[in-house]
Write a structure and sequence with these properties.
Radius of gyration: 16 Å
Low-confidence stretches: none
Largest sheet: 6 strands, mixed
CATH superfamily: 2-enoyl-CoA Hydratase, Chain A, domain 1
Number of helices: 7
Number of strands: 6
Distance between the termini: 39 Å
CATH class: Alpha Beta
CATH topology: 2-enoyl-CoA Hydratase, Chain A, domain 1
Number of domains: 1
Length: 171
């Protein structure tokens, strides 16, 4: 038996039922694939009533913004997208998490937010877009996220603080 094929089949069956698993270390290609999967679920004649994303990632790439955009589009169209942080939600993982309709984490989940660390105008504009994304999806204003972004260091926090910041809705 080819376990890789079996694993892919199970993953695809889960997707059809509205469950998406995001493991740690997603590649660029995976970021685009996950966005396409979300688009497919969103555009089905009979989309699932709720999409549940199981998130476990400590890294991120710019391509993961495509998935964030698809979550936002799905929510605007009335699809509920619940995100469960099964492990850590750092960098792009946190970008994905805050986009959800309802966000849950374990009490031992670690979170991390950081700035982009580049003076290039295009990067600064992208960072501002991300700051506005956080301000619109959490209960914390853009000034807080902007200040954390300026330090150039990873701002790490735990589940209790994530709840206070409005990053998650439930532990």
């Amino acid at each position: 038996m080819n376990w890789e094929t079996c694993e892919e089949g199970v993953w695809l069956r889960e997707v059809e039922d509205g469950r998406i698993w995001l493991p740690n270390g997603l590649s660029h290609e995976a970021g685009y694939t996950i966005a396409a999967v979300m688009r497919r679920l969103r555009n089905r004649d009979n989309p699932p009533p709720v999409v549940i994303v199981y998130l476990a990632t400590e890294t991120g790439l710019p391509s993961h913004w495509d998935f964030v955009a698809e979550i936002v589009r799905a929510r605007r169209e009335g699809l509920e997208v619940n995100i469960h942080a099964c492990y850590n939600a750092i960098s792009a993982g946190l970008n994905i998490l805050v986009a959800g309709s309802f966000r849950v984490a374990h009490d031992n989940t670690k979170f991390g937010f950081h700035g982009v660390g580049s003076p290039k105008a295009s990067i600064v504009a992208m960072d501002e877009m991300r700051i506005q994304h956080y301000a619109s999806c959490t209960t914390t204003d853009s000034a807080f996220w902007r200040e954390k972004s300026k330090t150039g260091e990873l701002f790490e926090f735990d589940a209790e603080e994530a709840l206070e910041l409005g990053v998650i809705d439930e532990i």
